[in-house]
Design goal:
The complex is a heterodimer of chains A (232) and B (340). Chain A has 232 residues and is an alpha/beta fold. Chain A contains eight helices and ten strands. Chain B has helices spanning 13-19, 22-25, 34-58, 60-90, 110-120, 134-145, 148-152, 174-185, 197-239, 241-249, 254-298, 309-335; strands at 100-104, 126-132, 162-167, 190-195. The radius of gyration of chain B is 35 Å and the shape is elongated. The chains are: A alpha/beta (232), B alpha+beta (340).
């Protein structure tokens, strides 16, 4: 079943066409890279899924729901079902690591006991449980990215979107971050990762969707056979 | 990973115990019951109230300046209102006064004056008639003013005989009173008839004017309070742009985003209201000494009206509502411009 479906989607900003009649689908529980040069339309695609932008034509469906038809008041609730990881982390430096990760739960309406349990579980998952009281500004780039991931998954979303999650990281850290995404995918979360880190993409067996000038210019199916042995 | 090797003391045992089964359920969308949702709602309100107050106190100088400006804007109309209340109290004794003074001709013999007075008492339209003997009036006057030396030096009593009349007519019935006045003027021995009501009414006109000025001032300064708070909140929104973006991205509703700013407005209002109350109370205390002395000189039982409990609460409540509303206006205007 398709989790995300783009059906002939175009998006233009004035004279500039960011997406041009794009169609693709991401299945439930699938992990896929989204690649292309900067300006190829990766960010626009993610923004459409997040309802940060509206398609100029065509339809974007998530779980069968046409996102164009979502009322403005429904958008926050739509976003709560998606975990987003940003290249620049988008962490808040006026609060602790714990509070950064807790933010989506506070928004969704969790009581503090439930919230603490979930935040610690998410921090434990990314290996930063011991730094919950620190300010994220004191942490390294890789650690900040992992806080961003903890925040994206703390609400147990069914879909994770990541925009250049390994952008500023060295190969070793990039692999660690990718490993986290794979772990979430293992338990059924759909993951879509926008990246132009080709060495990393080529090392991993996942599906690749390649964009160029707003069009689908190539696709590589997931390499089924090598998947099992990959992690070790 | 690159976890530090020191043992982690801060994490309670129950948290790490729960972690183990987490991945199994992580593919499910979490469910939240209605009761936990409302508990979380109140928790968030409490958190935001505390957090926004904390932010104000982090910048004590800037916050105090804002509070003082608000307090001054709030205390001005309240002060005028209190002044008016005090004047009203001073004039309260004249409230029902539709009293008419009948001044008799200077050469009227006391006998005729008394006769006229007795005569008037039989008039059905009068409720009381009081003859004031000129000699007695002079004695009263000399006693109350302490001018006995001067008065003793007078050759004869300069005061006319006066009959003080209280008509049954209501003080608002100007036509009836004027007719009565004309009827009284035609009586023998009567020099002139004076309606005391007239100047009381003029005073009331002035007080009505004053009351309207209080309202105009209250509205203008209320508007100033809105603008001050609105501007302060706008700056606060600007400085928290990133946070608003992130909150919206992870699914914060407009109400959620608005909440801390509304609390900021409420705290500004509350602080401004309380400081305004302190300013007014201090001012009244400062005035109370001289007023008491002045009042004792006049032998009046006038008491300076201060801020009662109701007035105090109303002042602070108004300030809070203005603070909240000012914040609401600013947030509504500026929040929509911050979209992720």
């Amino acid at each position: 079943m398709s989790h995300i479906l783009f059906d002939n989607v175009s998006k233009s900003y004035g004279a500039h066409t960011a997406l041009n009649n794009l169609s693709f689908e991401l299945n439930q529980g699938e992990i896929s890279f989204l690649t292309g040069h900067s300006g190829a339309g990766k960010s626009t695609l993610l923004k459409l899924i997040m309802c940060m932008e509206h398609a100029s034509s065509g339809q974007v469906l998530m779980d069968g729901v046409n996102l164009e038809r979502l009322a403005k008041s429904q958008i926050p609730f739509h976003r709560r079902r998606i975990g987003v990881v940003f290249q620049n982390h988008q962490l808040l430096f006026d609060r602790s690591v714990f509070e950064n990760v807790a933010l989506p739960l506070r928004i969704s309406g969790y009581t503090s006991r439930d919230l603490e349990r979930r935040v610690r579980a998410a921090l434990d998952k990314v290996g930063l449980l011991s730094k919950e009281k620190q300010n994220p500004i004191e942490l390294s780039g890789g650690e900040q990215q992992r806080i961003g991931i903890a925040r994206a998954v703390v609400n147990k979303p069914s879909l994770i979107l990541a925009d250049e999650p390994t952008g500023n990281l060295d190969p070793k850290l990039s692999s660690e971050i990718m490993r986290l995404f794979e772990q979430f995918n293992d338990v059924g979360v759909s993951v879509l990762i926008a990246s132009h880190d080709l060495p990393l993409i080529n090392r991993l067996p996942h599906r690749v969707i390649a964009l160029g000038q707003g069009r689908l210019i190539g696709e590589r199916a997931a390499k089924q056979a090598s998947e099992e042995g990959h992690h070790e | 990973m690159n976890k530090p090797s020191k043992p982690n003391k801060r994490v309670p045992k129950k948290a790490s115990a729960k972690v183990s089964h987490k991945p199994k359920e992580s593919n499910r969308q979490s469910t939240i019951t209605a009761s936990s949702q409302s508990a979380a709602y109140f928790q968030h309100h409490k958190l935001m109230a505390k957090d926004s107050l904390g932010r104000l106190l982090q910048n004590p100088f800037a916050s105090t300046m804002t509070w003082l400006v608000l307090a001054i804007a709030l205390s001005l109309p309240m002060t005028l209102y209190l002044a008016l209340e005090n004047i009203k109290q001073l004039s309260h004794s004249w409230d029902q006064s539709s009293q008419i003074s009948l001044y008799l001709k200077a050469n009227t013999l006391p006998r005729f004056a008394q006769e006229l007075s007795d005569n008037l008492e039989n008039w059905p339209e009068l409720s009381s008639v009081d003859y004031i003997d000129p000699d007695k009036a002079l004695a009263d006057f000399s006693r109350s003013t302490g001018l006995s030396d001067v008065i003793e030096g007078l050759d004869d009593n300069p005061l006319p005989a006066v009959i003080s009349i209280l008509p049954k007519l209501s003080s608002t019935d100007m036509d009836g009173l004027t007719q009565l006045q004309q009827k009284l003027e035609k009586l023998a021995h009567v020099e002139s008839v004076q309606l005391d009501l007239l100047w009381v009414q003029r005073l009331y006109q002035f007080m009505e004017l004053g009351q309207r000025m209080v309202w105009a001032l209250a509205i203008l300064l209320g508007l100033a309070v809105l603008l001050i708070i609105g501007n302060t909140i706008r700056l606060s929104i600007e400085s928290r742009r990133d946070e608003i973006r992130v909150v919206k991205l992870v699914g914060g509703t407009d109400a959620f985003v608005r909440r801390p700013f509304l609390y900021t407005g409420v705290w500004f209002g509350l602080g401004g209201g309380i400081i305004a109350w302190i300013l007014i109370s201090a001012g009244l205390y400062w005035l109370s000494g001289p007023v008491k002395e002045l009042v004792s000189l006049y032998g009046s039982d006038f008491q300076l009206i201060g801020l009662g409990l109701a007035d105090s609460l109303l002042l602070i409540l108004d300030a809070v509502v203005l603070g909240w509303f000012g914040a609401w206006l600013a947030v509504s205007k500026h929040l929509s411009s911050i979209e992720p």
